Amino acid sequence: MDAQDVSLLRELLASTSWVGRADDLGRALRRTRDPGGLLLVGTPDHEPWHLAAHLDDESRYAGLPQLAPSLVRWNPPPDAPAHLRIGLERLEDARRGETLFVVNSEVEAPVPLLERVDDARRTGATVLALDHGDPELGALAHDSISLLPERSPLSFEGLQHLVSTAAGQPEGRRKAGVRDRLSRFLDLVSGPRVLDHQDSY
């Protein structure tokens, strides 16, 4: 899914709460204070590589170094490059000003993940979650966005794209409302309005 596809997805979902919720989580991700302080973790069976790559892209495009995630892995190989060798012990050092972003693609978060999230929260990290509605993970998170497959108009991957794109958007961006979209549509249909002499004064 490229930037144009995400833009189209945002337009299609503009009348729902999904775009606003993604924007809220994006703002929360941008509040991470320092580069390296955004800790991204998944489950033992599903590491969020795709989301990590998109957040890294948004970090570069938007000039927001704090958005470049540190991918925390359950069993990193010892010979992996340094940025791919960050293990769970990093969560023990989580502190205030850092953000732990949990991506749980399973229906319920594994207990070892919940324990580590709880530890990071106790040491002061802000916990954000993107999941399928797990109540235990939701109770630990300061903010979360949940996708319930049977009631949601987008995929789990699509939701990740919405959130990562929102994270890279400028803070002052004004959301386009119905009036803005209607105005754009009328401009496209009728063309620019020509001012007469009376209108020019």
Short description:
This is SIS domain-containing protein. The chain is an alpha/beta fold.
Largest sheet: 5 strands, parallel
Q: Work out the radius of gyration.
A: 20 Å
Q: Could you give the order of strands across the largest sheet?
A: 2-1-3-4-5
- Give the number of DSSP strands: 5
What is the chain-wise order of helices and strands? Answer: HHEHEHEHEHEHH
Runs in which pLDDT lies below 50 for 5 or more consecutive residues are 173-178, 183-189, 191-201
Fraction of residues in helices? 40-55%
Give the distance, in angstroms, between the N- and C-terminal Cα atoms: 48 Å
Give me the secondary-structure topology.
Blueprint (H helix, E strand, L loop, with lengths): L2 H10 L5 H13 L7 E4 L7 H14 L7 E3 L16 H4 L6 E5 L7 H12 L3 E6 L3 H6 L2 E4 L9 H12 L10 H13 L11
Helix pairs in contact: 1-7, 2-7, 3-7
Write structural notes for this entry:
- The protein has a five-stranded parallel beta sheet with strand order 2-1-3-4-5, with helices on both faces.
- It is built from eight helices and five strands; from the N terminus they run H-H-E-H-E-H-E-H-E-H-E-H-H.
- The chain is an alpha/beta fold.
- Helix 3 links the parallel strand 1 (38-41) and strand 2 (70-72).
